[in-house]
């Protein structure tokens, strides 16, 4: 090597820097994995709540449809019980 050049970093210092960078990357990866797991759990909870909500909406829609059918049947029964005046036209 040229003795007029001053070394800024020797091998030991470079290896220490790389080791510290690797440790930083591992720490960031661990934090990222923990955050991803937390978000996955939160997403699962939201999906479960959405499924419950969807089931409630479907149950309400079915109940509304059943109620409408009961009202229709009641009106048909009322209409059948009423005697028609033969003097009135059918329409």
Can you describe this structure?
The chain has one helix at 11-81. The longest helix is centred in the middle third of the chain and has 71 residues, at 11-81. 78% of the residues lie in helices and 0% in strands. It has 91 residues and is mainly alpha-helical. The termini are far apart.
Structural class of the helix and strand makeup? mainly alpha
Order of helices and strands: H
- Give the helix tally: 1
For the record, give the distance between the C-alpha atoms at the N and C termini, rounded to a whole number. Answer: 114 Å
β-strand number: 0
What is the typical, i.e. mean, pLDDT? 92
Range of helix content:
over 70%
What characteristic shape results from the CA principal axes? rod-shaped
Q: Strand count, sense and closure of the main sheet?
A: none
Q: Give the C-alpha Rg.
A: 39 Å
Topology:
Blueprint: H1 11-81
């Amino acid at each position: 090597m040229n003795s007029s050049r001053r070394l800024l970093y020797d091998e030991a210092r470079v290896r220490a820097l790389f080791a510290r960078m690797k440790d930083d990357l591992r720490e960031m990866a661990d934090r990222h994995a923990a955050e991803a797991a937390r978000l996955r759990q939160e997403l699962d909870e939201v999906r479960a709540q959405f499924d419950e909500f969807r089931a409630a909406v479907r149950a309400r829609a079915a109940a509304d449809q059943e109620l409408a059918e009961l009202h229709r049947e009641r009106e048909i029964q009322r209409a059948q019980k009423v005697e028609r005046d033969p003097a009135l036209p059918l329409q």
